[in-house]
Design a protein that fits this description.
The protein is mainly alpha-helical. It contains 15 helices and 4 strands. It has one domain: Ribonucleotide Reductase, subunit A (Orthogonal Bundle), CATH 1.10.620. It binds fe (ii) ion (FE2) (2 copies). Keywords: Bacteriochlorophyll biosynthesis, Chlorophyll biosynthesis, Iron, Metal-binding, NADP, Oxidoreductase, Photosynthesis. It is an enzyme of class 1 (oxidoreductase). It comes from Roseicyclus elongatus DSM 19469. This is Aerobic magnesium-protoporphyrin IX monomethyl ester [oxidative] cyclase.
């Protein structure tokens, strides 16, 4: 294995994780790693699954699209991209407004954990599998996520912070999900990741005065990686029509509702960050949901009705309940805590029971990034 200075130049996930910028991350700042270790409903988790079942997938029904996608990922257009270059402007971390600084660091740590969560899951699948198609795909995705996480850690290091990724791998709790739940959740997180990154990128392209940190300049190539990962999961689901029909449609609705509402609540916890970007979090959420819904029609037979009068109301109720819950936890007020939890559950049920929009899924799933 080559000894590399930077994960951006790695060809494999193993090389990326042995690169010098990963090594340096071990000089940890406890706070950041502690934040990344959290397992709440709103923080990124690490996942494990039934790897044998995943390994048994036969991709022959989607062979043509599959080979095209794998060839494109192997050609590796983003090799060397995820590291600082002359476009990386200097950041005055000490001069940054404290509230913005705290929220931005929280954003970076949570993004780094989410990227690394993908890396760990994909790497493990690659390690455990024997199916050539599956192993190849997961190796390529793990490579990308390792680069993404490494790059975010580079940005954090300038603020004197780093997430100890080796520690996380060993010590963070792993949540078990059946393979089909991994497909729904991971497919959605890749596609919503694409929609989030491209929406910020396009917004800052039009309003460069709001680009308060250089990392946003990297979001375009970044979201293209996430787009491809989402394509791979769409193809995996396409190999078995049962995954997207019958009772499973209810599971799809559940994951859509959970992923969308989690994003809404989490983003509303970072008002200073969104103000600095010049982005209204309600507008942003609506924009990201619209894009994700449009994309997910490639494989899901339903989309959520985000124009329904109960949708925005439900999100706001969930967000308020969550804020009250956090406050009740801090003050140790059990009655308030139970009240807030009940309201959060009711808001979620209200969102989940909005009738979904159904449509016909096209025969071929393949899409290109269009936003
Ligand atoms: Fe990623
Ligand atoms: Fe990804």
């Amino acid at each position: 294995m080559k000894d590399l200075a930077h994960s951006a130049d790695a060809s494999t996930v193993e090389e990326a994780m042995a690169a010098q910028n990963y090594e340096k991350a071990i000089v940890d700042s406890e706070g950041a790693t502690a934040l990344a270790m959290q397992n709440t409903l709103l923080t990124p988790r690490f996942y494990t699954t039934d790897f044998d079942e995943l390994d048994a997938i036969d991709v022959s029904p989607v062979r043509e699209d599959w080979d095209k996608l794998i060839d494109q990922m192997k050609s590796d257009p983003n090799k060397g991209h995820f590291k600082k270059n002359e476009d990386w402007d200097h950041i005055d971390w000490d001069g940054m407004e404290p509230k913005l600084k705290a929220e931005f660091i929280d954003f970076l740590v949570s993004s780094c954990t989410a990227e690394f969560s993908g890396c760990v899951l994909y790497k493990e699948m690659k390690r455990r599998g024997n199916n050539e198609d599956i192993v190849t795909l997961f190796q390529l995705m793990a490579r990308d996520e390792a680069r993404h996480a490494g790059f975010i850690n580079d940005a954090l290091r300038e603020a004197g912070i780093a997430v100890n990724l080796g520690f996380l791998t060993q010590k963070k709790k792993y949540t078990y999900f059946r393979p089909k739940f991994i497909y729904y959740a991971t497919y959605l997180s890749e596609k919503i990741g694409y929609a989030r990154y491209i929406t910020i990128y396009r917004h800052l392209e039009a309003n460069p005065e709001h680009r308060f940190h250089p990392i946003f300049k990297w979001f375009k190539e970044w979201c293209n990686d996430e787009f491809s990962h989402g394509e791979a999961f769409a193809l995996l689901m396409k190999t078995d029509p049962k995954l997207t029909s019958g009772l499973n449609v209810l599971w799809i609705k559940f994951f859509l509702t959970a992923v969308y509402s989690t994003m809404y609540v989490r983003d509303h916890q970072r008002p200073a960050f969104h103000a600095a970007l010049g982005v209204d979090p309600d507008w942003y959420a609506h924009e990201v949901f619209t894009k994700t819904s449009e994309i997910s029609k490639q494989v899901f037979p339903i989309t959520l009705d985000i124009e329904h009068p109960r949708w925005q109301k439900g999100l706001e109720a969930l967000q308020r309940a969550n804020a009250d819950l956090a406050q009740a936890k801090e003050t140790g007020n059990i009655v308030k805590r139970v009240g807030a939890m009940t309201r959060a559950a009711a808001a979620f049920v209200s969102l989940f029971t909005i009738p979904a929009i159904t449509h016909r899924v096209p025969d071929s799933t393949r899409l290109e990034p269009a936003y």
